[in-house]
Amino acid sequence: MSEDVIAPLKVFYAYAREDEVLREKMERHLSPLRRDGLITQWSDRLIIAGTDWVHEINKSLNAASIILLLISPDFIASDYCYSIEMKRALERHGRNEARVIPILLRPCDWHSAPFARLAVLPANAQPVTLWSNEDEAFHNITLGIRRVVEEIQAQTIISSFSQPASKEDTSTRHPPLASERLLVRYDAHADKVTTVAWSPDGKCIASGGLDSTVHLWRPANGQHLLTYRGHSRIFPPAAVYAVRWSPDGKRIASAGTSSTVQVWDPDNGQKVAAYEGHSVALPSIFHIEWSPDGHTIASTNMAAPYLDEAAHIWDAANGCRLLKIDLRRSVLKSSSAGDVSWSPDGQLLAVSWEKKIRIYNASMGKHIWTYEDHPDWISEVVWSHDGKSIASSSARRINIWEPATGRTLFTYIAHDGIIRDLAWSPDGTRIASASEDRTVQIWQASTGKRLLTYSGHTDYVTAVNWSPDGTRIASSSNDRTVHVWRAF
Phi and psi for 451 in degrees, rounded to 5? Predict the structure, then answer.
């Protein structure tokens, strides 16, 4: 590996002179990263007397891998900090040349600033001076910057192996690696990203995570459009685990560690309905699915065995329950409800429970039959677009089977970690699987032949979703990012 792959990353401080004392404290807290050879730090205090200070600042700003915006009332008021340094920093961030991290030092009105779409530090967007112990605040910031440094270095290592073969050696050319497939990297979430969904028209992506928010943004360029904060609460912190667009793209349903599923307007973020029928004890709603006609939603609560061991079907317009399907067959045995998936005609509902998948009549809740060919607890169930097959996963295993007969067509085992999500391509010929082994695999739905592996993430891949035209994939990860990448 070349030396530049492991070279320390240059950190640039953009700050107002009034915050010099706080900047120095932060520099001291980052000294372990400097001693570990992970970073070097630059501020205007390193400019030698008699030199052109504007030239030196621009040179260091353009060379930095990480740019820290130290936000305060004085930073916002400074024409140089706000209109020159910050503008240049965000331009480099937008071109993936550097990573910009806003650091909230002192309280100020920053929510409408150009950097507001980015994830800020410290935790919960609480300025350093409002912490009871400033050292705790700076320690929190240091941990966040360390994660960014490790992520950038991991991406650099991946890129170091992506040199194309020479013209004389085209026979040994390898398929494109992650760095070559990646189109857009969205990193505005403040915590792990757990779910991602493409709008039906392909023009927008919704992503949610442990930061209690849902972000709407453009997959073409990563432009942030709206942040939905309807799930936010002070204590305990909320998380968003599921986000789904309505079939017509006019509504979004989202849910997580609250007992309500919320339906809202993606144009303005206004809540239009909420379902409150799940148990309020230990709520953890991982799975929600719109019916094909967009009139109803099915949802399950994974964290409340005994209390809420059921699939709920409810009216998306007003949140009224239409049907509750009890999955438990004995008062002596209990387990969590799992995934739900509608048949394309909306007449049947597949629900996972333990190592089984049950098929129900969606209008009456009548149990039709049970599929039992999984050795472990089933996490994902997805009906194919033509209704002829179902893909389901347990641990590292994926089964493709016929819902009409229950016959298993084949089993796919290729991941080195637990599978977190499955998605059929729009044409039904391929399946994408996301895993805790930090990869997404695309494979042929009819044979199980692996077609490609995407390895651009640096932590668990939590969700995967195809673009409506089947050419791109959006994948979310515990590394706090969503990647949009080429599926061919």
Answer: -100, -40
Q: What pTM, to 2 d.p., does this model score?
A: 0.67
User: Distances in Å between the alpha carbon of 322 and those of 297, 299, 312, 315, 329?
Assistant: 10, 12, 8, 7, 21
**48 contact partners, CB below 8 Å, separation of at least 6:** none
For residues 323 and 391, give the distance between their C-alpha atoms in angstroms, rounded to a whole number: 25
Where along the chain do its domains lie?
A: 3-157, 178-486
Local structure of 92: helix, strand or coil: helix
Tens digits of residue pLDDT in 110-158: 988 988 878 788 977 889 999 999 999 999 999 889 888 877 776 665 4
Task: Map tokens 């029928």 to a residue.
Answer: 277
pLDDT of residue 165: 41
Q: What is the DSSP letter of 53?
A: H
HEC states along 222-246? Answer: CCEEEEECCCCCCCCCCCEEEEEEC
Q: Which DSSP string corresponds to 247-296?
A: TTSS-EEEEESSS-EEEE-TTT--EEEEE--S-SSS----EEEE-TTSSE
CATH topology of domain 178-486: Methylamine Dehydrogenase; Chain H (2.130.10)
Superfamily of domain 3-157 in CATH is Toll/interleukin-1 receptor homology (TIR) domain (3.40.50.10140)
For residue 40, count other CB atoms closer than 10 A to its CB: 15
Q: Which DSSP symbol is given to 115? A: G
Residue with tokens 């071109």: 95
